[in-house]
Amino acid sequence: MGANKTIAAGLLLGAVCGGALAQDAVDPAELARIIARHPAWAAWLADPALAKLTLAGPKLPHSPWRVADIRRPQPPAVDTGTACAGKTPNNPPGDADVLFDGKDLSHFTSDHMAEWSLENGVLVAGGRVYNFLRTRQSYGDAQIHLEWKTPAQPNPPVNPQRRGNSGVFPMGLYEIQILDSHTTDTYPDGMAGSIYSQTPPLVNATRPPGVWQCYDIIFRAPRFDGEKVVSPARVTAFLNGVLVQDDTALIGATVHGKVAAYAPHAAELPLAIQDHGNPESRVAFRNIWVRRLSPR
Ligand code: MG
């Protein structure tokens, strides 16, 4: 407990020295209580920036919680069986745009293309710079399939958001998170299966790092009338065959540490995959395809 009090005091000092507003300051007593309940979180909560992010973010408009709130209940874990976990990926359906089948990256572009490599038929993010791989084609309403694997690390980074962090971004704007969060040690709206910084997954359907996992996502693009949002983006997502987002309405384009908001955009935009820029924890991908969906 003594160590917890020391950490809490250091955090308070860090928040003050960092110029944080009083209303956004981390409550050291609450921090100490959280660490007492979750000792494994002490290492990363000792970082004042992470403590502030996960305890003193802005309030979300659609839930009682704050953005990236570590106090939010952790979704229950479920055993996912073996869907997509084998050595051989499943065949895409006949009407899919096959974006990556292990042969080349011709369907993609990036501001940092050299960061994306083809290694033994697998696409691997470089991890040296935060950037995105974007499809050359644009998509609106779509069904998206993508298989991913985070690296098994004997000594994973202290910051849980640096463990195999990537993400699927329909329209390049709306992140469905990829992360090694099998041990649920990050904020629930930042774990795999979440709409990042908005909505946690219904359950923790992740597998351990080093094992292939798969997303099947149904994305409905937002509709705009001028500046007005006529209908928000909606996501239904299955992680390893398990429903994790059930027709979830998004509150805006993905942002970090802020409340998302919409800005009108085109009806179709490139799909993007995130390289979070963590060289010690490079994420691999295989079998990526997308099907265009008719408006409903
Ligand atoms: Mg991400």
Question: Could you please describe the fold and organization of this structure?
Answer:
Helix 1 packs across helix 2 and helix 1 crosses helix 4. A hairpin with a 6-residue loop joins strand 7 (166-169) and strand 8 (176-178). The protein contains four helices and 15 strands. 13% of the residues lie in helices and 28% in strands. Strands 1, 3, 4, 6, 9, 12, 13 and 15 form an eight-stranded antiparallel β-sheet that branches. The protein has helices at residues 2-17, 28-37, 42-45, 48-55; strands at residues 97-100, 108-110, 116-119, 122-125, 131-139, 142-149, 166-169, 176-178, 213-220, 223-225, 228-231, 234-239, 242-249, 269-275, 284-292. With 296 residues, it is α+β, with helices and mostly antiparallel strands. The termini are far apart. The protein binds magnesium ion (MG). Magnesium ion is lined by residues 165-167, 175, 177-178, 274, 276.
